[in-house]
């Protein structure tokens, strides 16, 4: 058994007592109420999910296991000479709540290496897709095709105690996480750089370093990958991808079904796909300007034109956040250090100066500030990943760390099948007294 799994099991045993006590002794305590607009309006703000892996404060942004992103990036062990920490260390932190030692990260690196072999049929599934397919559809199908590898299913069929669900779920989740970067890089090379061929991982590199290597990218793309996967890993449980993963897994579907579903949720333009939409929208502005950097007035006009057409400004607004997303800030600081003169970065920075005021003036968006997606494409574009359809695949690889950590804990704590109650419009009208 690996150190991570031992430590996780200790934590699970301690935590089970807390959950059992809450349900047994305080199960009837009211923690929230639901309004009509919440029921109709996407359940915004209803406190009805529990996770200890991350928490999103509207004004502070995300904390992973109590650590802010700058703290996570500072405290997790880093490869020699790197600015960004090992992604493997993040998995340890998300699962256990503890910052791993160098030795614990080293063990996990080896463990991931042993788990990352991708069966050949997955490459066949990817190859079977027409080359104009969206990479998110390919990723979802590739993950789905791995379902036959599930240990959980084999054990479940043989008859397994509920107390043991977490164990084979951990095995499935870790196997899948180790394979995700290989699948992502293969899709990238197949769609956009067939001349790269099939680049197998380098046994001496960590997950982030290997992703850069398989993508055919030089330094500092290894740090870009580490940063990218870490900041996208989790955003508490109510966002579409995390919630979908949790929902599907709550029926005891295995992690392959659940992860494929979470990828499908991430593929919408109001969620993860917004990162490609930002680039598409910015390219539109660039084309209109014939390449020159627009003046503030020209930029304002482009933003207003978009709003007046009834469209959203991609990369701005958020369902929970009410300030600039710290994930935007982390990437902005990376840009200031590594690509301060990049044209696209200048565009994005100039937008930051005009969009919030315009959104406030329009008066609709509750949060006029940029979210993670406003900045992430700039970094990728700078390092030559200009095929913006691919950006949400990167988001998916990062997000799988959070979603899968959550599913392991869901199983460990015996979280129930998710099944909220619906009402009809007639019933709502009766409840408010208009019928
Ligand atoms: N541009 C224009 N209008 C906006 C924006 C925006 N960026 N954000 C919100 N609004 C509108 C929204 O469409 C709604 O309009 P209506 O009343 O006509 O339906 C109104 O403002 C109120 O919406 P909110 O309550 O502020 O936002 P909500 O919680 O419903 O939605 C988002 C959150 C993220 C879906 C929304 O802000 C949005 O569409 N943003 C642009 C897309 C985006 O960047 N998504 C990525 C989010 C982060 N991620 O990675 O998932
Ligand atoms: C996310 O990272 O999931 C997005 O910011 C969306 C959200 O939290 O609702």
UniProtKB/TrEMBL annotation:
Pathway involvement of the protein, from the record: Carbohydrate metabolism; tricarboxylic acid cycle; isocitrate from oxaloacetate: step 1/2
Protein name: citrate synthase (unknown stereospecificity)
Biological source species: Lutibacter profundi
GO biological process: carbohydrate metabolic process; tricarboxylic acid cycle
Its EC number(s): 2.3.3.16
One Gene Ontology molecular-function label: citrate synthase activity
Stored Gene3D superfamilies: Citrate Synthase, domain 1 (1.10.580.10), Cytochrome P450-Terp, domain 2 (1.10.230.10)
Principal EC category: transferase
Record SUPFAM superfamilies: Citrate synthase
């Amino acid at each position: 058994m690996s150190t991570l799994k031992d430590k996780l099991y200790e934590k699970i045993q301690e935590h089970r007592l807390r959950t059992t006590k809450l349900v047994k002794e305080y199960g009837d305590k009211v923690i929230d109420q639901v309004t009509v607009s919440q029921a109709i309006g996407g359940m915004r703000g209803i406190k009805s999910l529990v996770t200890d892996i991350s928490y999103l404060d509207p004004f502070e942004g995300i904390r992973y296991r109590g650590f802010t992103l700058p703290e996570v990036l500072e405290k997790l062990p880093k490869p020699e000479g790197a600015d960004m920490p090992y992604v493997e260390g993040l998995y340890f932190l998300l699962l256990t709540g503890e910052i791993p030692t160098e030795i614990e990260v080293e063990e996990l690196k080896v463990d991931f290496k042993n788990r990352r072999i991708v069966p050949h049929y997955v490459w066949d599934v990817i190859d079977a897709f027409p080359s104009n397919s969206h990479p998110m559809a390919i990723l979802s199908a590739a993950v789905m095709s791995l379902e036959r590898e599930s240990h959980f299913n084999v054990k479940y069929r043989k008859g397994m105690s509920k107390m043991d669900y977490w164990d084979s779920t951990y095995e499935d989740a870790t196997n899948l996480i180790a394979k995700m970067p290989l699948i992502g890089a293969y899709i990238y090379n197949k769609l956009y750089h067939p001349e790269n061929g099939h680049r197998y991982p380098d046994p001496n590199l960590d997950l982030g370093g290997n992703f850069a290597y398989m993508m055919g990218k030089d330094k500092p793309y290894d740090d870009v990958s580490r940063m990218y996967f870490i900041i996208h890993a989790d955003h508490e449980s109510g966002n579409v991808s995390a919630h979908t993963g949790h929902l599907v897994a709550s029926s005891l579907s295995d992690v392959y079904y659940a992860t494929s579903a979470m990828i499908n949720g991430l593929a919408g333009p109001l969620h993860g796909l917004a990162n490609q939409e930002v680039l598409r929208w910015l390219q539109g502005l660039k084309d209109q300007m014939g390449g020159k950097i627009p003046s503030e007035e020209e930029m304002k006009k482009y933003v207003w034109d978009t709003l007046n057409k009834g469209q959203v400004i991609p990369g701005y607004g958020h369902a929970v956040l009410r300030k600039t997303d710290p994930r935007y800030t982390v990437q902005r600081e990376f840009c200031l250090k590594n690509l301060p003169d990049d044209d696209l970065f200048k565009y994005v920075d100039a937008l930051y100066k005009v969009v919030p005021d315009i959104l406030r003036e329009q008066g609709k968006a509750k949060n006029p500030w940029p979210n993670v997606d406003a900045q992430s494409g700039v970094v990728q574009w700078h390092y030559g990943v200009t095929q913006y359809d691919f950006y949400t695949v990167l988001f998916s690889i990062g997000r799988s760390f959070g979603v899968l950590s959550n599913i392991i804990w869901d199983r460990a704590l015996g979280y129930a099948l998710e099944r909220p109650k619906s009402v009809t419009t007639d019933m709502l009208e009766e409840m408010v007294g208009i019928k």
